[in-house]
Fold these 2 entries.
Entry 1:
Amino acid sequence: MIISFLIFAFSIILAITIHEFAHALVADKLGDPTPRAHDRLTLNPLKHLDPLGTISLFLFRFGWGKPVPIDPQNLKNPYQGQLFISLAGPLSNLLLAIILSLILRFIPFTSSLLFSFFFTLISLNVTLAVFNLIPLHPLDGSKILLGLLPEELRLSWTQALTQYSTPILILLILPIAGKSLISTLIFPLITFILNLLLPF
């Protein structure tokens, strides 16, 4: 029980750290010094963990990291820049899951504990990536959507996402008959990706 909790805790902290660092790195490469100024261009987990979000993770297995501060005015193309910055988080989690799955496939593990850690880390990275692609504010998917929309639709969609995303997200997360709607929506995609990655 304690070992399983420690594996989960370390895995989710690592997944969130990679996710937020990727946001900061791409923003920095696109010319926004804001993440660097806030000391977010680092793999130090303490810089990326939100206290309340971390407590929520351990208590309810649902939580969040500290959002990386971005100033769109520093970007050559604010909407396109935010699209790439937002996409970097989920893609970094998927890339880590792919690398770990290749290690599982080609390196035999004699330790069940190490195998369990890799399995948990892959699963959490895939889940974090898919969840963040949901096009609701403040998730990454909302900025990705805005970056893909034609310019004439962005203002109305920005207003709609700002106004309605939070109540919709709460409704999706709240358990109904012991199961949340959001798990029903994203679990098939998560399962599909994990079936491709995991060697069994």
Entry 2:
Amino acid sequence: MKLSASEISSVLAQQIKDFKSSAEKSNVGNIIEVGDGICKIHGLSGASMAEMVEFPGGKTGVVLNLEEDTIGAMLLEENQGLKEGDEVRTTGKIMEVPVGEALVGRVVSALGQPIDGKGKLATKKNRLVEVKAPGIVERQPVDTPLQTGIKAIDSMIPVGRGQRELIIGDRQTGKTAIAIDTIINQKGKDCLCFYVAIGQKASTVAKTVAKLEEFGAMEHTTIVAANASNPAAQQFLAPFAGVAMAEEFMHAGKDVLIVYDDLSKHAAAYRQISLLLRRPPGREAYPGDIFYLHSRLLERAVRMNDKLGGGSITALPVIETQANDVSAYIPTNVISITDGQIYLETDLFYKGIRPAVNAGLSVSRVGGAAQTKAMKGVSGNLRLSLAQFREMEAFSQIGSDLDEATKKQIERGKRIVEILKQPQYSPLAVINQIEIIFAANEGYLDDVKVEKLEKFENNFYEFMHANYAKLEKEIEASGKIDEKSEKELKAAIEDFKKGWE
């Protein structure tokens, strides 16, 4: 088939007519230094703080330093293959992570990528990792309890929805155990949970996932893991990614619990990045903005007012101390940001008092506002009784002759300490906590041998559930113990003690 000259010229004319040239504008720079998870780049004058930048091979980084001639970025993945002179482009995007219902029950990385082998996340929505915390007007007071299921905490150091309660103590004192028990206790309570594991061994995170699955708690939990083997950048981003995911549910009017385990490792990761970026070191070599790092994270724990849906984020940050030193830099910083702390003591832990909560040094600045009237009524004198017992116990080791009142107080103190012990992975319903503390306060346990108290307690709960379920429901529904229910409760305890042994 032959083409005539006129046909060729008409095709060319049409091609020229349809041709559209478009100029693509991009901000391009070059790597001048790379290593240890950070990168110095020259030529990206238009880059913004916390902006994502793109390296060759699809690798990404986040801008942290803006200097006169260069910018400093942290690499989100391993820096294998990157070298001096490589081209870097800005993306115009601020760091964000995927959010939504698809995350519930999953284990994801600090970048929101699934790492549990259960396939892709079916979510299309993203949220910025760094956002401004809600202001005073958008908040409402904390007055609704978030039950941990742990007697020592729910009775003396109550946690409310929207509160920030620090869990602090030396290593191996049961800090994570309290957080995991609290997550297990939210089963069936319409509260979603996020567990952010920072700088932990992958095997430890795997054990935590297995435990949560065993107790049916993964159904309402998302785990954000930045393991010890991950770059420092991911360990630094993990808690911000976790709270961004949690905020999606909070703005939908839901209650969320988030655990940061732990912020000591988070601070260390940020220190590492800051020192590599040549930021000036301050106390203990931490950068000057380390306080702001944690305050802007923890201020995002909030109970929104009803106009904004009434959702909440309750934060349980964990801090590891060295040799019980709560006056170190990071512990004092986080204590000053949070609404109280649960202090776990090594000595108590080794004595077999677990959870090893030191009632004297632990405090909840929300206090009785986050308790039901029934719990407030029975636990009012508990802290005082424990403090007096500790004092009397120390005194009795020196003094030989004690009067009857002192002996009685010591014996009751021993029983209170015993009933506040609780095995791991066995959170207790609030009504059961109220019943056993009421029995201790009223002196019904004074004649029960200390070594038999655990058996007494378990049998007592079974007896109450089988024979006095109506009374339990009445106290739960009203939230308080009135004269009538107090008489019934006393009669129930006496009835149980008659047949028990």
